[in-house]
Design a protein that fits this description.
single chain, 223 residues, 6-stranded antiparallel barrel, 17 strands, 10% helix
């Protein structure tokens, strides 16, 4: 499994058209989004969007859950219903109308950032002097949040290893109590990250436990 070199986000230009349902639709998008069920989270690609729905490119098999939400890069999360699928594409309908500009971050007070995916995996952090055990809180293309009881200095280089992931070189970006934010030396390609998350959640039953059953520490998100 290879991880691509860090660089600008891939992103196509956007344009507004009017589809045959009469709703203005922003199309020609290539933005990551997150499908969320009560059991798991899945990375997908937002292809187009209107106030009433969106089409998504899927990077693995469609999850079987029916009760889904869609989260955008700006942090907005909306309940959706799956209305159609075709090969690697799916169409969802928003249960309540969505402000398209806010969903795309145009009018959001919060900047776009990499989507985080909850993965409570045991991890080993290796420095030149020692190996430490911790537990991952979340994973993104560019980094991870890990809980570790030991002290690590800001800027400390580490190698992060976990079941189902390749060894990842990273450094400490921030620290809050026993929570550490790591930035990867190289970023995951979107398709590799999507398939990795899907495989981990499929292979590890404890990752598929309903969110209400997670320990409190696993439900917290990095800021």
């Amino acid at each position: 499994m290879q991880i691509e070199q860090s660089g600008p986000r891939p992103e196509a230009a956007s344009k507004v058209v009017v589809d045959d349902r009469g709703a203005p639709r922003v199309t020609t998008l290539y933005r990551p989004a997150k499908l969320i069920s009560h059991k798991a989270e899945y990375l997908c690609i937002l292809r187009d969007i209107s106030a009433s729905g969106a089409s998504l490119r899927l990077l693995h098999a469609l999850p079987s859950e029916k009760d889904l939400s869609l989260e955008f890069e700006c942090g907005l999360r909306v309940a959706v219903d799956l209305v159609w699928t075709s090969d690697d594409t799916a169409g969802v309908k928003f249960r309540d109308p969505v402000d398209v500009q806010s969903a795309l971050g145009t009018l959001s007070l919060f900047p776009r950032r990499d989507l985080r995916f909850s993965l409570p995996l045991p991890v080993v952090l290796t420095t030149p002097r020692r190996s430490l055990r911790g537990r991952m809180g979340n994973l993104s293309r560019e980094g991870a949040m890990v809980r570790c009881p030991a002290f690590l200095a800001i800027g400390r280089a580490v190698r992060l290893e976990a079941r189902g992931l390749p060894p990842i070189d990273a450094h400490v970006r921030w620290r809050k109590g026993n929570r550490y934010g790591f930035v990867f030396a190289n970023t995951f390609p979107l398709d590799v990250l999507a398939q990795t998350i899907f495989r981990l959640q499929s292979d590890c039953p404890f990752l598929l436990a309903p969110r209400a059953d997670y320990p409190d520490a696993m439900r917290e998100r990095a800021s």
